[in-house]
């Protein structure tokens, strides 16, 4: 079958369509597609950007270097540990909060606003507030001391520092996903719960056999968004450790390490790009695996 030639009117219509799309296409090229290809280019070179920029092609040497970089291994482990703990915790907390608010409690709107406030607050501001709370003489240790419980050096103990960031982020990110769950919960037909109640199902059985299955597509979305966000942990770790990833590299994440190599160390911009590329591959792989093993079809 021969390809049909477009008429003048069709060509004019297509041209008008591309003209309207041109701002979006330019933005994509300048801020997404272009930087991606430039990052790939940098990852294959040893780069010196001060003075006259120089690019020395080294092939996959930057990627091979990652295998021998102990700080990169520590950063990857810290990031994976953070993701494995925070994503399930924030998802479960968001679901519990949404189910509680959807139960018809008095003052639901008031509690919804209170729960959602952390999401509206700047991440940097939240981190500074929690730093004050985590301080040796801060609110949390004062309360623990008043109750006769042991106090902790949240900011200076390598075994606790990352956990402190986890607790802060679980508390601050769960309300955003709570709103998503709450909207999905209100779409579940009441007739299903009424029929289950007539069959003698208790509240936990109704939750497990009706609520959870109907929220499966939403849970898949929440987990994917959680994975993407947690793998990119940077600002809280940077502020907590003043950019060092301390104490003893316990809060060093892969994004913070990329920042250090890109802007704090001379001649390692190409290596930083290689680390960023590896992180992108990890995020993409984790997202695809999650989507593969989750059933996204609706139960309606």
UniProtKB/TrEMBL annotation:
Transmembrane segments: 20-41, 80-101, 113-134, 160-184, 215-234, 269-289
CDD domains linked: TM_PBP2
Source taxon at top rank: Bacteria
Family annotation (Pfam families): BPD_transp_1
Keyword annotations from UniProtKB, A to Z: Cell membrane, Membrane, Transmembrane, Transmembrane helix, Transport
Keyword flag Transmembrane helix: yes
Bilayer topology: Multi-pass membrane protein
SUPFAM superfamilies xrefs: MetI-like (SSF161098)
Localization, UniProt: Cell membrane
Residue ranges of domain ABC transmembrane type-1 in the record: 76-290
Family stated for the protein in its record: Belongs to the binding-protein-dependent transport system permease family.
Listed name of the protein: Carbohydrate ABC transporter permease
């Amino acid at each position: 079958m021969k390809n049909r030639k477009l008429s003048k009117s069709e060509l004019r219509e297509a041209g008008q369509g591309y003209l309207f799309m041109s701002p979006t296409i330019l933005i994509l090229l300048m801020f997404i597609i272009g930087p991606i290809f430039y990052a790939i280019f940098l990852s294959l070179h040893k780069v010196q950007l001060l003075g006259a920029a120089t690019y020395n092609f080294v092939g996959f040497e930057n990627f091979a270097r990652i295998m021998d970089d102990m700080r990169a291994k520590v950063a990857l482990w810290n990031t994976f540990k953070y993701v494995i703990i925070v994503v399930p915790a924030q998802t479960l907390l968001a679901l519990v909060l949404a189910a509680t608010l959807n139960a018809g409690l008095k003052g639901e709107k008031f509690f919804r606003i209170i729960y959602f406030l952390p999401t509206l607050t700047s991440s940097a501001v939240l981190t500074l507030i929690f730093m004050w709370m985590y301080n040796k003489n801060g609110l949390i240790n004062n309360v623990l001391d008043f109750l006769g419980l042991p106090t902790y050096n949240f900011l200076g103990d390598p075994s606790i520092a990352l956990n402190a960031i986890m607790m802060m982020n679980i508390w601050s990110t769960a309300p955003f996903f709570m709103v998503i769950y709450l909207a999905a919960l209100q779409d579940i037909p009441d007739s299903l719960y009424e029929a289950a109640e007539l069959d003698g199902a208790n509240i936990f059985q109704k939750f497990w056999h009706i609520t959870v299955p109907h929220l499966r597509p939403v849970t898949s979305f929440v987990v994917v968004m959680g994975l993407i966000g947690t793998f990119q942990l940077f600002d809280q770790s940077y502020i907590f450790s003043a950019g060092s990833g301390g104490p003893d590299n316990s809060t060093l994440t892969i994004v913070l390490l990329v920042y250090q190599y890109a802007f704090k160390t001379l001649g390692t911009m190409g290596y930083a790009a290689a680390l960023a590329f590896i992180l992108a591959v990890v995020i993409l792989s984790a997202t695809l695996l999650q989507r593969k093993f989750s059933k996204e079809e609706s139960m309606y």
